[in-house]
Amino acid sequence: MRRIWESKFLPWVFLLLGLLFSCLIAWKCALWIDEKEQIRFQTASNTITNLIYKELNAHIQLIRSVAAFMCVSPENISREKWKQFAIKNHINEQFLGLRALGYAPLVHPQERLKYEQAVRHEEGFADYAISQKNVSSNTALFPIMYLEPMSEMNEKAFGFDLASEITRREALHQSFIRADATVSSKINLTQKYITDNQVGFSIFFPLYQTKDIPTSTEERLASAKGVLFIAIDAKKMFEQLLKSHYSLVDFEIYDGSAPLEQNLLYNSNPNLIDSRLSGYTSLELYGKIWTLHFKAKEVFEMSDSRYYPWIQMLFSLIFFSVFAGLIYVLQRTRKKAYAIANEKTKQLSQSEAEIRSIFQSMQEGVMVLDDKGVILECNLAAQEMLQLSKSDIVGNFSYNSKWSAIYEDGSVFNKEDYPSLMAINSSLPQNNVILGIRRKDGSLIWVQTNAQPIFSDNFDKIRSVLITFSDITAYRKSKRELEKYLQIIDTHVIISSTDTDGIITEVSEKFCQISGYSKEELIGKSHHLVRHPDMPSTLYEEMWTSLKKGIPWYGEIKNRSKKGVDYWIEAIIAPRYNEEYQLIGYTAVHHDITDKKRVEELSITDRLTGLYNRLKLDELFAYHLSIVKRHQTSFSIILLDIDKFKLVNDTYGHQVGDSLLQAIATLLKRNIREEDAVGRWGGEEFLILLPETKSDAACLLAEKLRRLVEAENFEYAGNRTASFGVATYHANDDETSMVARADEALYRAKEKGRNRVDLELYSLTTS
Predict the structure, then answer these.
(1) One GO term of the cellular component aspect (predicted)?
(2) β-pairing verdict for 757-759 and 722-728
């Protein structure tokens, strides 16, 4: 069997058998379709024949009903009763193709004028006259007297002599001879002969003068009274007949026993010339023989039904070809599968060896347990960490006393808390479980353990558990030391972190200690909480500009604690990034330089007033002069002296004098710009440095300060005044020359009565 399946000829044998089978099925199907087609064609032909016969019988029944109607009371027949009879029998709706139902009495030639006059007078048709197609003076006349429906076209036939047209004459003559309804040959309907040669036929029914029908032909002709007739439009009749009964078979009707073109009465499909199916039958009815020719190309609903056998054969061939190809592919696939299986078996063996090698060489300890918690396998790292051989480990439970475990707090590990048992009981992975293991030599090793349950193929139960553990003894030691260092840093280093909007996210204990705020009060707030009001906003603008560019910022900042104590810090602020190098905030490391700043402040300020001392004023004076000379900007100074200050000391004592100096120092500092500098020049004299200020602006400031001093009511000293001298930088000026001119202006103000402002006299001094 295997040899047959692997034979290379199997696909071709199967394809050949499939071809033979397809041809056989197609041939049988073609025979069946031909047989069914002939049966359906014959059935359709018989149906059409029966429909025609049935419809003609309906017309015959109508004309016989009219004959009975006239025989009941022939003397009472009138045009109105004729019309009512036609309406009552619905001749227009119920009889297909009916164009007219009429009655024509027999009129002998010698009675023609009398008959015409009678119709004119009795019927009211003044212009009535018998019309004939072929005029003859010797034959009897059958002029149409009653006609329904009396339409415009039918009115043209009123008075027409039926015997004047040979076909009608022969038919009505036959009806008297047969004493029964008789169908005429093909005629052109009288109603339309003027404008249209409409093909049709008529049915005639004889009326005799006697109640009983005469027996001999001569007696029948001699006792003729008149004739009833129905004019039928052949095309309309048969088209309506086809509409009511859908058929795929067309037909032709010929008048007579031969299908001659001149005898064609009706053709349902003139365009169908070369019909695939054809058949003839004769229909004998009421003295007339019709020949029916049936024709069709298809008799099934789907025109391509005769192609079904070939389509079926095509699909069968495709199917068997595909199946043969599939066998071929399966053979090749099977051969390849065997080759691949052999190759994969080799690779699997190699992979198993590699995995086992990797398993043994892993730095992590690895154990494999069954679903009961018994150790099935372990690697070398696990043996080294536990200081046990493989035989000491494999076959024991993971909670064996050979490697007793403890929690981080030193207590003995509970059996149910072992990661392996928790994974088995909960069916969930156990990650990062830290436990200490007392080894064989008594040393303690700390491991971080993970337990991963491994499920069966349908995941309904745990098949085994994979345990991995890492030696974190050194890591724990380093972590403890790091925590100690971090604690030291947190306690002794001023550190704060913010997000990108400057909102504090973290602070050290030292930061809380120096600021006086708790962590809860600081986190979520801005550093504005500790900002000193004396710090210029330009410094913070410069800081943020630098940080937003990703550049660390270094500088000194003055802060104010929660208790209102001022302190200075030296700050290093750097951007902070996440793993994807996205900016997430800023970290600042601060150094308390309050003592340093106090020493600096003592060296540059006047101890009594807190203003700059003369040494600092000299330094600032030199700085502003260098700026003026480099950038050609304006620069002015104001020198002021408290009037009669010696009298205050002599009268109230030096303590009141010191208090007055402090009060005036505060007043001056409060009313100058941030970039201006004021200091104690000596005794009761003060010097104000005004960068980028011209003489007129300096005079305005001096006058403002003079009024403020004059208006102030100083404690103990009462109202006091001061005199002011103003000087402005000129080319080649230095500190000495400018102060000299300001001093001269000051003393001129005193000479002029004190409590006034005087401007330098630069032009006079230079001359």
Answers:
(1) membrane
(2) parallel
Structure tokens at 289: 């023989």
pLDDT band at 277 (very low <50, low <70, confident <90, very high): confident
pLDDT tens digits, residue range 550-584? 899 988 888 998 888 888 888 999 999 988 888 98
Distance CA 24, CA 21 (A): 5
**Radius of gyration, CA atoms only, the chain:** 67
Residue located via tokens 């299908």: 259
How many Cβ atoms from other residues are within 10 Å of residue 344's Cβ?
A: 12
Task: Give kind and range of the element (H or E) at residue 84.
Answer: helix 79-88
> Rounded to whole angstroms, how far apart are CA atoms 333 and 752?
124
Domain chopping of the chain, boundaries: 73-240, 362-472, 493-598, 605-766
Per the CB < 8 A criterion, the answer to whether 316 and 30 are in contact is no
Whether pLDDT at 308 is above 70: no
Name the CATH superfamily housing domain 605-766: Reverse transcriptase/Diguanylate cyclase domain (3.30.70.270)
Provide the pairing of β-strand 444-455 with 553-560. Answer: unpaired
Instruction: Count other Cβ atoms within 10 Å, centred on residue 108.
Output: 11
Asked if 247 contacts 300 with a C-beta cutoff of 8 angstroms, the reply is: no
What spatial distance separates the first Cα and last Cα of the chain, rounded to whole Å? 137
Token code pair at residue 156: 């043209």
DSSP β-ladder status, 583-592 and 430-438 = unpaired
**Matching residue, tokens 């001056």:** 668
309, HSE (Cβ side, Cα atoms, 13 Å): 14
Structure tokens given for 63: 């004309």
Q: CA-to-CA distance for 644 and 626, rounded, in angstroms? A: 36
What integer is the mean pLDDT of 424-431? Answer: 86
Fold of 493-598: Beta-Lactamase (3.30.450)
* Tokens 């003068």 -> residue: 209
Q: In sequence order, which residues have a C-beta less than 8 Å from that of residue 134 and are 6 or more positions away?
A: 164, 165, 166
8 Å CB contact between 90 and 144:
no
User: CATH fold of 362-472, please?
Assistant: Beta-Lactamase (3.30.450)
Closest C-alpha among 744, 580, 625, 606 to residue 684: 606
- Same CATH topology for 73-240 and 605-766: the answer is no
Per residue in 84-100, pLDDT (tens digit) is 888 888 888 888 888 88
At residue 193, the pLDDT reads 41
Q: Token pair of 97, please?
A: 């193709």
SS3 content of the chain, % helix, strand, coil (to 5): 45, 25, 25
